[in-house]
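Morning!

This is the sequence you dropped in the shared folder:
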Amino acid sequence: MWGGTLLVREEFPTMNATYLPCSKGSYGNELRNILPRDIVLCDWNDTDQQSGFPSLSALQMEGLRFVTATRGKAEMIINFNS
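The structure's back. Tokens below.
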């Protein structure tokens, strides 16, 4: 399942809004809390140059399984997958 549909901009204000398509009142934490824990999410970021990705920490802390997917510059790939 695409992880971006479960990330609300208001929850992750430091992340690039391109990867946070949902706005307040959409999905977000409320939906993540009721998902079966055997679903595997794909947290996709393909051009963001930030040094941290708080979505990964949130998914992990909430007990959700996920894979990371990216492409682009080596620095961003390293930041996203570390």
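Headline: The first strand starts at residue 40 and ends at 44.

More detail when I'm at my desk.
O.
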